[in-house]
Write a structure and sequence with these properties.
The structure is a homodimer. By secondary structure, the first copy, chain A, is of the alpha+beta class. Helices cover 35% and strands 23% of the residues of chain A. Chain A has helices at 7-17, 35-50, 95-112, 138-143, 151-154, 163-169, 198-202, 240-258, 294-314, 334-346, 361-365, 392-410, and strands at residues 54-57, 63-67, 76-82, 118-124, 185-193, 206-212, 215-223, 227-228, 263-265, 269-272, 278-279, 282-290, 318-327, 330-331, 351-356, 370-376. In chain A, β1 (54-57) and β2 (63-67) form a beta hairpin. Chains A and B meet through β8, α8, β9, β11 and β12 of A and β8, α8, β9, β11 and β12 of B.
Chain lengths: 411, 411
């Protein structure tokens, strides 16, 4: 008999976890190292223990639940996601993957007993950068030795407090971050909500992820000359707003012209001085550009940078840009992708194989482990909002695929 | 012998007035009804008295210096400008016109004695809306009966305090605003810095203003759908930033296509939520559109509004806009314009006749009085900044034209 996942249990765990940091209605505010985060990790620890897993908190607050295999080998198959949220986020982003790892391993143990190979569920401490803007997947970076020694003391939250102080406040020693590093995780599988509309548009509940997009963030500053909005003729202006508008239209057109899956977003603008009757002196915009294929990413970025130069030169504006984030694409392990596809097919769950346009902890796990991901449908493609929603039926199907794959790997 | 203006006196007065609210270097911060404003008006009152003028403070704090004419008639010829500044502004915007009215009348009295017709110098309390965003030329509106009864109690400054409270704090009774109204000012002449580059580009020190531009402020709100910057393909987005960029480029192109003196400025943007990795849910922009000709203004606004509709419809965005300021063009009195031209010519000062692209107290004075304005060259067209600069030589030429014209009118 194939492993079964109880939808009632999925729902009960999701709703229980959503109470930690509940923000009215369906919203959740649960930033790393806050009291609500501590309470949520304590709840997950209690669940791990009740499921028969050995509980361990590592030096950055990632929570692990371990089910030792009979083969005595050192390599581990792990599954989980992050426990923190946007401010506010919803009930599913991250949380569903934490619960998936727990319930998949718990169900396997209940239905099949002890595995041959060691399984671990994990609740990663931080992914969203919603408290520390530079945290940047803190939990999975620590596991993979990607945290620089000075980060705990130099990284600051939106209120100016250091990461080190926030860690100490919850009983963690910031000098011991390297102790969270692991080299024994052979395989990492992460279930996550899609955060986009493609599964829903395809009429599918579950997707298999074969690559995680690149991500490049530019901050582009365009400077001209501030002028009185009435007293300076149009033809004599060096208006950075005119240049910024042309660049915004241009980068969006570049991504559209390249076609799916190229994307580019201008989400943030800062205008100085930002008064209705003053031609601005400068306009700063963010440009977020992504593509899962490295060559196509280079082409997209080259088009964008050529546009920055051309618009500034033609309009005699000053322009400068710097990179604030730069993640290479992460390719999922082809064998794991095929395993997930086969596991879904065996359970009669139709899927499509797709890339992830969002970043995930799995991209950091990929530096030392084989990774792949399972997506479940997001209603209307929404995420990072209290309005995000994934049905219990879809979530249960995704966890079933995960459990089936773990069974094939570990038993 | 023609009336003479002493440049040393112009410079001494300008530098003395700039000390009230001095903000480092050449900056001045002098908002209405602040201690530095009280001190500045007290200084002007002392100068009026020393010049032999009868000093009166009206019910909103406009300061008047009167030199009664021998003909005993009731109609007055007045000249002045505003004493308040941007935060920070410079030493010239407003202040130079206050000093011009004082020194022109003082010099005429010293050199010609008492006039036939009554002359008044005025230091208007407020023009810049730099403390109360809705004050909107408070001083000249009060003189012309344009202040609504509820304004003192409902209008708030950037810190939330009411206009009424600010008035009481400097000994003014907000219930007595209507007492500032005057119907006996037959002629109002205002000297002001140009705030644009046209005189400098033409190699002229002084300009004569024959019209003050219209001004329309729209706030345009463009709403779409907020999406994850990575997970939603470009072709499925309803991105309000893309629509805003197209509208910004379009309104600027409309004004350029119509040619001088049409102008349009987008100076302010508010993006929600303004995060780099989120397609915005809405973008609000201000559109400042001006033209001194009423028919051309209507045409410019019609093109802008047609653009708003077309972009929103094509991109299936929601769009709405409302008007936050709407000033009709003010035409200067043709006879006064000719008088100023002739006065300049008689003194060997070359001028050009031009419109004002900025709003001025004169546009409110025009509702009850004949008005005209004298512009003096602004270095690099700068204003509303500590960097604004007008040479003492150019200022003295402008005041000479003003004094010559007042002599022709009053003696």
């Amino acid at each position: 008999m194939a492993v079964t996942i109880d939808p009632a249990r999925v729902e009960a765990h999701l709703m229980a976890l959503a109470q930690f940091g509940a923000d009215g209605g369906t919203g959740v505010r649960r930033a790393v190292y806050t009291p609500e985060w501590v309470a949520a990790q304590a709840q997950v620890a209690a669940w791990y223990a009740a499921a028969g897993l050995a509980v361990r908190r590592d030096s950055v607050g990632n929570l692990w639940g371990r089910l030792d295999g009979t083969d005595g080998g050192g390599d581990v198959i792990a599954s989980g996601s992050h426990i923190d949220t946007q401010l506010p986020g919803g009930r599913y982003d991250g949380a569903l993957g934490v619960i998936a790892g727990l319930l998949a391993i718990q169900s396997l143990r209940e239905q099949y007993g002890r595995p041959k190979r060691t399984l671990e569920a994990v609740s990663l401490c931080e992914e969203e950068s919603s408290r520390f803007p530079a945290a940047n997947f803190w939990g999975s970076r620590a596991i993979n030795g990607m945290v620089a020694p000075d980060e705990p003391e130099t990284m600051r939250d939106f209120d100016g407090g250091t990461m080190a102080a926030a860690m100490r406040a919850v009983g963690l020693d910031p000098t011991r971050v390297p102790d969270a590093g692991r080299t024994d995780i052979e395989t990492f599988l992460e279930l996550h909500i899609e955060q986009g509309p493609l599964l829903e548009l395809a009429g599918l509940d579950v997707g298999i992820v074969n690559a995680i997009t690149s991500l490049r963030h530019f901050v582009v500053k365009i400077a001209g000359r501030s002028d009185h909005a009435g007293a300076v003729p149009m033809d004599l202006r060096r208006d950075p707003m005119a240049g910024a508008a042309e660049i915004i239209s241009g980068v969006i057109a570049n991504a559209l012209a390249m076609g799916r899956p190229a994307v580019t977003t201008v989400g943030r603008i800062e205008v100085l001085p930002n008064y209705p009757s003053i031609v601005p002196e400068s306009v700063a915009i963010t440009v977020d550009a992504r593509h899962p294929d490295p060559d196509a990413e280079r082409e997209l970025l080259a088009r964008h940078e050529a546009l920055f130069r051309a618009v500034a030169a033609r309009r005699t504006l000053d322009i400068s840009w710097h990179t604030t984030a730069d993640h290479a694409p992460a390719v999922c392990d082809p064998g794991l992708v095929r395993l997930l596809e086969a596991s879904a097919a065996a359970r009669g769950i139709p899927t499509m194989t797709m890339h992830s346009g969002a970043g995930h902890d799995s991209q950091n796990m990929a530096t030392r482990s084989k990774v792949a991901m399972i997506f479940v449908q997001s209603k209307d493609g929404r995420s990072h909002t209290p309005a995000e929603f994934t049905s219990i039926a879809h979530a249960t199907e995704g966890i079933t695929v995960l459990a089936e794959a773990l069974h094939r790997l570990a038993y």
